[in-house]
Each structure stands twice: as structure tokens, then as C-alpha cells.
Amino acid sequence: MAKVHVTTTINGEPMEFLCEPSDTMLDALRGPLALTGSKEGCASGDCGACSITLDDQLVCSCLVLAVESQGHEIRTIEGMANGEKLHPLQQKFLEMAALQCGICTSGMLMASDALLKRSPDPSEEEVRFWLAGNLCRCTGYDKIVRAVMDTAAEMRAQ
Amino acid sequence: MTELRYLAPATLDEAIGAFAKAGSAARILAGGTDLLVQMRSGVLKPGVIVDIKKIPEMTQIEQTADGGFRIGAAVSGMALHDHKTFGKVWPGVLEAINLIGSKQVQGRASAGGNLCNGSPAGDSVPAMVAAGAIVTVQGPNGRREIKVEDVPAGPGRTNLKPGEILVSFALPPRPPGSSDAYLRMIPRTEMDIAVVGVGVSLTIKDGTVTAARVGLGAVAPTVLLVEDAAKALIGSKLDDAALAKAAAACSAACRPIDDKRGTIAYRIKVAGVLLKRTAAIAAKRATGK
Amino acid sequence: MNLVTNNKWIGQRTIRPDGMDKVTGRAQFAADTTMPGMIWGKVLRSPHPHARIKSIDTSKAEKLPGVKAVVTAKDIVDFTIEKGAVMLGIQDMRWMCRNVMARDKALFPGHPVAAVAATSEAIAAEACQLIEVDYEVLPWSIEIDDAIKPDAAILHEFNKFEGKPSNIAGRLEHKKGDLAEGFKKADIVIERTFTTRPVHQGYIEPHACLISVAPDGKTTIWSSSQGQFMVRAMTSMLTGIPQSDIRAIPAEIGGGFGGKTIVYLEPLATMLAKKSGRPVKMVMTREEVMRATGPTSGSKSTVKIGATKDGKITAAHGTFYLQAGAFPGSPIRGAAGCSFTPYDIPNLLSEGYDVVSNRSKVAAYRAPGAPIGAYAVECVMDEVAEALKMDPLDFRLKNAAKEGTKAAHGPVFPRIGFIETLEAAKNSDHYKAPLGKLQGRGVASGFWFNAGGESSAQVNITEDGNVVVTTGHPDIGGSRAGIANICAELLGIDYKRVSVIIGDTQTIGFSNLTGGSRVLFASSIVVTQSTEKIITTLRERAAKIWEIDPEAVKWEQGAAHPVSPNAGQFEPLTLKELAEKAPAMGGPIGAGVQLNTTGADGGFGTHVCDVEVDVDLGIARVTRYTAVQDVGRAIHPGYVEGQLQGGVAQGIGWALNEEYIYTKEGKVDNPGFLDYRMPVCSDLPMLDCIMVEVPNPKHPQGVKGVGEVPLVPVMAAVANAIYNALGKRFYALPMSPPKVLEVLEAPTQQAAE
Fold first, then answer.
1. Percentages (nearest 5) of helix, strand, coil residues in chain A
2. pLDDT tens digits for C637-646?
3. The dihedral of CA A109, A113, A119, A120: what is its sign?
4. By CA distance, what is A67's nearest residue in B?
5. For residues C51 and C677, is the Cβ–Cβ distance under 8 A?
């Protein structure tokens, strides 16, 4: 069975990998690309733990075929920090205890980042509805929502 | 193990050729938010996947000279949301498409995929039906147009002929005083399949409804165009009696099932409740009040 | 033990040590690990709810190219029924060995019957399909009422109740006083029956493990679990590999809530790795998690409470039937033992019945059994208070357990903080806030035992004067942060100089599993004792340098100082300086302590919940929530709040929308997050917390376990709020929209007798 060769850009870097046509982008990230920061919680697009961006669009990587990434720009949690410099959202999540077990955290951060890029001054309701696709079972979402809104305020002030 | 082939043709003719050739082994890939889930669960084992996103007509949103819209079948909910004018003209269709799944799903899911997946509960369909959308399909025997309400054939099935691919939705120009709305009942606030979905499109002149269409989803094997509900609204001032009559028409049109999402009795009741609420929102938008 | 006050680190919201890795995607969860030569394992599962397995033919699977090993029950150690119970903690290994792999019977759809390891997941899955199993399908039952019918198909013929084969696998009771007399004294008696559906812990990370077995049997296990020692012990007992040959390493765990306190995959992957000679990775799909791992029990409870007209409870009787699933072991202990415990009740009978049926074996879920029992008791408490025309918090205050009260499950309470939680709830802004149309407010309280148990720690001073703390419990709530706070506080050094890691079974002493709200409680005791030993050593070394008596040296703010000017004029010796001098002064500075910790008394909470109901659609939404809890001492307030908020969110889901739905064929109809409806972000309001601190006198920092109590009162608080809004009571969970509408449209129910 011949694998497909895919060339894509991940976190700004050109990358190539081999995959089955039926592999999802999540399979490719966690397998041949060894980028395990995106997590599999359900493989059906219901939990958001696998969230990435494809051409700056927030998507579930479990709902994108790996082959579809050919020629496009993929961004994952591994690309969120700039070397040692954390993204303000990452820093805020740490400071405000917006994570416990951490399995949803990659997806939450990717989704929150996508929100703030579109909507720098979101209301609590907007944040909650935007993050509805990211399940968390540990935190009850309270500190996550607060962290996103605080970060938004800080980023606007800069 | 069956070998899966992935194709991403650049033209519609190529796509139709490959799709028709592979017959029942082929599936169209737009957003993939249904297809990939069905493949993963083993419900579907396609031999060929035809990705239509490289075909320009499939991903374009066009406002036509007469003020109507043509939306490519593979346009994502997010792309439609970001269009400068679409949401102002068709807020109901837009909100319906953007209730499918999560923000992540809306980054990929399309009205075309939602319609062709054939779920009676697909959120975009009642709104498209209420809007009076006409879909263009193209197959080995050429191009034709179908009323959107004539596309669904039953759960998981459409009236598209073998080899036909959905190309675009045409929404008619809006007379002044027109707007639409979509509401659904779900147990949580997001992320559920609609237990009942209602789309209402209205034109109101001097307080009186001059045109109306009502689409009702998740209460029958296909989405329904409820003409009796529309008739009850047309000519009325959306007074309580007219709304009650329209609501009753919706409840009467239901042929629902008991399933893990709702009971028959519940769906029948909710269809009526939602009709009233959806019509009220559409009216508010249509009259600017 | 001296309570530490004037804290620099205790009570601070420090950055959790594992946080950086988790926000950057670097944290290694079990499914993220790989080993060279790794192959994949998959499980073949029974499609039938109940069937005798007549034969299994794996020959075709074994021949498929790429298949490296096949495992069936023959490869798993049998703990024979006749030999009697073999307990590991609360688990009977006779059930565990049958739960991980069916022996003569498949007892639920999803029950493993074989496992395959192959060079790819796809090949392993295909090989499973080639295994031929000859099933003799048997009648089945899932619901409690069906399982206890006289003609119900019996799951375990050897199990007898009242002399006959039965699906009732156990009974326990707690008794106090004279029940009949007690009810005679009551002016108001209310008796109600409640049902709940099974619900899943809902951890977002599916079970996963990676296991390597060397030719000499030396085994390495990475797995997602709440206890690496439990993993080692269970795997050892089920495979025959000695414990000393097994290194069980706890990966970061993506949620557990009790569901990962047993093993499912590890024994299978170990035998596959042993037979194939290759490391084997096994990861459950979400569907497998929902079908084949333990949700908690569905239940049927009847609660009767009697009180005098001035509000004193005179008697209470609770009967709690809990669904165990395929094997005995539902949490009747929690249901019967915790539900009445917040109250001083002179005459009491609390009975629990363990009922087996054809669904997956129950696993622990956050205060197992207690939320089920509390739902029933706290709803009846609400009805009694209403009948007495008393404020529901006042009614609870009038009957509250306090120091000296004899609890239902036996112990006499020491100083506890339950009354404080009631008073804090009553005085809260929330309780005083006005309510609008179709809005309602409910309250409920709850108790959970909490646990101490075995814990080991090793604290070592590095050569450059910093600290490494190794503890033995997987960290699911933020315990590493709490431990770092405590250690930094005791040594008087900057928090950042303390590194906390979780050891594996070969690098740290035995530590009981993460659960029972015990991790911070137990590990902080052994960390404290280890650190105190180190401080003694540091003082001795400084004393030697200064040539004074060690009694004349004190340790403060990260350095040794003379106790007073009389002892001598010496410059303080810092931790760094003493560490550098260590080799010449007697060697490495470190200490370890292993204990069976005690002194964990129970936890109490009182919750206030507001709802708003859309009466035309039957949708209840929680609009405001306050959880008050006696937390002893909040070592890290952020993560204590996190426990409260997490438990509340789970309880709201349990109350409103979560439930297992079965098809007519007895299979789970909603084995995914689409139709198993857990709360999403937009479903919930902010979840306010009031932490009452009544320090635990038996703990060096006053810590009480906090993790489980938060789930206990929630469903009753929501149900009581919905009653307050609508005037209709609910006696079944979940209160999902079709059910709410049905109750709203039903004729008015009989009033309380």
C-alpha cells in the first residue's frame, strides 16, 4: 500500500511526511511529524483537544485529512510560544490556574488565540460560545474564561 | 484492506468524471466534518475521495447583479460569516450554518455538505428551505437546478442522481422589508444535534406579512417546507392568532421519532413553540424594530 | 504539630511546576510516548450483553502478516471464584481478571474477549475481525429493576442472596438508635424514591499505555493512571510477573476522577509485549471508553426523614440500590455511609444494595456513591424544610453535625467545619440576591469520607543548594504546586528553587493511589517530615561548623542562625553554602519518609444554586452557583478552587443532561461526546467558591482533602432550585428538557403527607 507524500508548512517551517490517504491531520501530527501537543479526545470533532489552525482558520485536526494540508499553512500549539517567550495567553493560563490535567489546554489555547485575533474585546458570553467546542472536565471553565478575558484586556492595553 | 484514493481536481468536469467513474465507492469531500467522522466510525469505507475545494465555483460567494447570492457548495460557515454583506441580507441562513458543531467545525463545514449528508436535523437546511434556495447540481448529463426542499430524500439520502455533484446555492434577491431567522432546540447551549429546527423567512410591508416560507427540521425523515404555516402568516400582522395557527401547522406537519435526542411528543410541542419565536425574530429583523 | 502561620508560600497562587509543559504542548501523556520497535495493540470486544463463550479461534488472526501476538483469557492469571476474595485495595482480583478479559462469559457489550498486537493499528484491527468467537447468547438485564426481578437472568450463578442465586451481590447497613421509635416522635415524615442514570467520569484523555517486556521479564509501563503502584500490582497479579520486575511510570494524566484507579489495557499490553518481544502501545478510542470502562452506578434510592415541628430530625431511613455493572462492587459504602452524615440523627438506618447487571463494571467517580445518596437525602431535606416552613439552611443548621456528633458510618467527629459552611452560604451575597421570573434557588450539603493512606516522599538537596522532591502520587489536581509551596515554606526559600516530580514504582516508595481526596493531605505529611529531617541535618552541620550545640541553631528564611546572641556571633549559613560543604561534612543531604498517614477526617460542603427555566422548552440553565467548603487549609487557593469548580461542573452535567442511553439490544446508544452531553463552556456561569478554613488539627499544615466533596451536593442543589422556580419536584435524573416538559405538563402531584 503506497503512502502519500505531503509537503506542507507547520509553524512557519516547511515540512514533509508520508501518510495513508485516510489519515487525519491529527494522525500525521502525532505520528510521522512527532508533534504530540495536539491531543485526541474523541476523533469525531466534539471535544476540540486537537485544535489547530489551517491557513489561520481554527479547525479540528481530526476532521482534516492529512493530505489536505498539502500547500497550506498549519499552526499548532508547538508554534504558539516564541522560543522562551510565552504567548500572553499561555502566561495567563499559568498565572490564573486555568488548567489542571492539561489535556484540553493545547486546544483551549489555540481556540482562544483564534478568538482574540478576530475579536480583541470579547464579552464573557462571546468567549464562552467561541470555546463551546473545547471540552474541559477539570476546571468548569471558570478560570479559563477569566484568563482569556484578562489576556484580551492586557493585549488591548499594549 | 481497501486502498483509498484521494483526488483534488481543479475543474468541475474532472471532479464529475472521477466521481461518476468510481460510482458508489466515491464520496465528495468539502469540509469533511461529516465524512471523516463516518469514516472513522466505520459507517463509510469509501474507495475514492474527491476533494472539491480546489474548484473555484465551489468556494466562491457572489452577489449577483439582481441582488441575489450564489454560494459555492463548499463555502465554509466561517467564510460566509466573514463576507461583508451576506449576513446582513440573510442573517437566518448565516446563523443556521454557523450553528453546525463548534467554531472549529464552522471553519470547514459547508451548506453543501450539510445538505448532501442528508441528516433530517442538519441545521442549515430549514433556513435554506425558508430562503427558497435553488441548488445547481452538475453531473455526467449536464447541469440542472433543483429546489432545495426537493434535495433530501430520507435520512442519509438525497435526490441527486449518480455522478451528480452539488455546485452552488442561489438565493433570490430580497424585496425591502425582508429578513429571516433560524432557531433550534438543543438541550445544551451548543454542540448538540437539533432536536427541532425552524427557519422562517418573511417579507413585511406596512406591518402585514406579504411573503413567508417556513422550513422545519429534525421532525420527519426529511426537512419539511410547511406551506400551511406560511399560509397562516401571509396576510396577517403576526398577531397571536396567526402565530398560533402557524405553530399548530408546524406541529401538525411533524412526523418525528423517539430517539436519544427527543421524544415524539416533545418534538411536536417544540415545533410550535419555535415557530412563534423564530417568526418573531425574523419580523424584528425585517422591520428593523 | 505547629501550624505554620505568616506564610510566604502557603496560600499563594504559585505557578504549578508542570504548567509550562502543559501550555506549550510538551507534556507527555501516555499516548504521546513512543519506543523504538513499538507495535500497536487492539482489543476484540463482545457484541453481546450476555453470552457464554464456547470457543475462541485465533488462528486466522495469527496468520495475518504483521500480527505479532494474540492474547486471550488463557494468558491472564485466573483468580478462581471458589478460592474466595483476593483484595487489592477495594478491588477483588477475581472480578478484575475477568473484567480485563472475559473468561467463560461475556457480560456486557464491549467486554474484551481477545487482544492483538501488530505492526500497525489498522492491521491489529483487521486481525481482531478475523478472530472467530462462538457465543451462546443469553438473556440480559441492565436496569436495577430488571436485574432484581425473580426471573432475571443471573450473571453469576455462584452469587447468592438470601439463599438463592441472585444479581444482588452485596448489602451493607449503618444503624443507630431505634428507627420505629424515632419516626413515632416525628410530626412530619416525608418519604420519596429517586432514580439516577449511569454517568461517566468524562475524562477527556482516553486510557492509554505503552509497555515493553524484555526477554528476562523486566517490564516497563507508561500509562495513564491514578496510581502507578496500583498498575504495578494489578499487572503483576494478572500476568504473573513479579512486582520487582515491573517499573510502572505514571505519565501525565488527562483526567481520571476515579475512572483510572483500575487497569483495563495494561495486563493485555504486557502479555502482548511479552509474547511478541516488542513494545506494545494501546490507546482506547472514545467509543471504547464509553462502552467498556466504568461509568458510575445508576441508582434507585428511597429516603424517609422524620422531624418534629420545631425542626429537629428524629429519624431517617435510606435504602440505596446501586448498579454495579458486570461484577460486584458498586459504591454502596459511599451512598449509605455519607448521605446522612452531615446531620446529627439519633435514629437511623442506611442500607446499600449492590446489584450486578449486563453493562460495564462500575468504576469510582469522585466521592463514589455519595453524590447518589446525597441527591436523594438533600431533596427530601428540602421537602421537610418546606413542610416545616423553615429556611432550608436554617433546617440544616438546626441538625448539623459538629464536634462530638457520632457519624452514621461510626466515627465521632472531631472539630469540623460543616456549620461554618452553612453560615457562610447563608451570609453570602448569592443567598441574598433577588430572583426574577421563572428563576429559582436551591441549596444542598454534602459529606465525603476523605482518606489518608500510604505515601512516600524523598527530599534531596542538590549540590547547588536547591531542592528536589520526589513524591509517589500522580498529580491530577495540582498537588505538585501545593507540595512545592509547603516545602518552600518550611525551608524558607524561594518557591522556584523547589522541583517536584512524581516517581515511578522503582524510584519512590509505595504510595497509595490518587483518589479519596488524599494526595495533598498524605504527601504533604511525608514531605513535611522529610523536610524536617533535612532541617535537623542542616542545623547539625551548622552547629558543627560553629562548634556549638545543635540545640542552639535555628533554621529560618533559608539559612541556619544561632538561636540567640548568647550562642555566638556567626554569619548565617545558607542552604547553598551548606550544600556545597556537604561532601566534607558527612555526605549528601536528603531524607525520605514512608508512612501510612492517618488523620484525614471527612469534608463538608454547602452549595447554593440559581436556575432559570424556559418553561416552553423545558430547558433549565444554571445562572449562578456558589460552592462553600471547609477546605482545612488552602495551600494553593487557585487549585483548591479548581477542585470545587470542576466538581460543580460535573454535578451540573449529571443533574441536567448526562446519562447512558441504551438501545433495545442492550448496547450503549450514545458512546461519544456528541450525545453523551457534558457541560460545554457556554452552558455554565462563573462558579463562585467560598473556602472556609477550619484547619485539620491532625495535619502539619491543617490540610483537609478537598477534591471529592464538590460533586456531592450538586444534583440536589440544582433539583431544589428547579423546584423553587417551577413548584414541581423531580425524582429522577437527568432533568433534561423532555423530562422537564413532561413534569410541567403532568397533573399536579400529591403534596407531602
1. 40, 20, 40
2. 999 999 999 9
3. positive
4. B6
5. no
Q: Does residue C621 belong to the interface with chain B, where contact is any CB pair within 8 Å?
A: yes
Residue C200 has pLDDT above 50, yes or no: yes
Looking at the fold, whether C473 and C426 belong to one and the same domain comes out as: no
Name the CATH code of domain A88-157 (choices 1.25.40.10, 1.10.760.10, 1.10.150.120, 3.30.230.10). Answer: 1.10.150.120
Handedness of CA B109, B111, B117, B119 (dihedral sign): positive
- What is the Cα–Cα distance from C226 to C250, expressed in whole angstroms? 8
CB B230 within 8 A of CB B212: yes
Q: Is B52 in the A-facing interface, judged by CB distances under 8 Å?
A: no
Through-space distance between the first and last CA atoms of chain A, rounded to whole angstroms? 54
Do B190 and C680 lie within an 8 Å CB cutoff? yes
- Using only C-alpha atoms, chain B has a radius of gyration, in whole angstroms, of 19
Cross-chain residue pair B37–A1, CB shorter than 8 Å = no
Q: Is C580 on the interface with B (CB under 8 A)?
A: no
The residue-averaged pLDDT of B142-148 equals 98
Per-domain residue ranges of chain A: 4-79, 88-157
Interface test with A, best of B102, B108, B110, B190 (most A CBs within 10 A): B102
CATH code of the domain occupying A4-79: 3.10.20.30
B4 touches C at CB < 8 Å: no
Q: What is the pTM of this model?
A: 0.97
- Tell whether C477 and C497 lie within a shared domain: yes
**Which residues from C are below 8 Å from B270, CB to CB?**
617
Of B139-143, C103-107, C567-571, C648-652, which gets the smallest average pLDDT? C567-571
Q: pLDDT tens digit string along B225-248?
A: 999 999 999 999 999 999 999 999
For B151, the grid coordinates are 434535495
Q: Which of C28, C29, C255 lies at the smallest CB-CB distance from A138? A: C255
Write down the pLDDT at residue C517. Answer: 83
Q: How far, in Å, CA of C171 to CA of C161, rounded?
A: 9
Specify whether the CB–CB gap between B204 and B210 falls below 8 A: yes
Which residues, 6 or more positions from C388, have their beta carbon under 8 angstroms from its beta carbon? C188, C307, C309, C311, C395
Across the interface, which of B4, B39, B189 has its CB nearest the CB of A132?
B189
Neighbouring CB atoms inside 10 A of B242's CB total 18
- Residue A145 near chain B (CB below 8 Å): no
Q: Cell numbers 423553615 label which residue? A: C390
Give CA–CA dist B54/B74, Å, rounded: 10
Q: Which of C662, C707, C681 is closest to C290 using CA atoms?
A: C662
CB contact under 8 A, B191 and C674: yes
Residue of chain A nearest C636, judged by CA positions: A97
Q: Please check whether residue C269 is in contact with residue C281, taking contact to mean a CB–CB distance below 8 angstroms.
A: yes
Q: Do C622 and C510 share a structural domain?
A: no
Residue C753 has pLDDT above 60, yes or no: no
A59: nearest CB among B39, B108, B191:
B108
Amino acid at position C482, single letter: G
Please indicate, yes or no, if residue C480 is contained in any of the structural domains.
yes
C594 bridge partner residues: C456
Q: What residues in C contact A30, CB-CB < 8 Å?
A: 31-32
Instruction: Characterize C20-37 residue by residue with b for buried, 16 or more Cβ atoms within 10 angstroms of its Cβ, and e for exposed.
Output: eebbbbbbebbbbbbbee
Question: What tens digit of pLDDT does each residue of C452-484 get?
Answer: 899 999 999 999 999 999 999 988 888 999 999
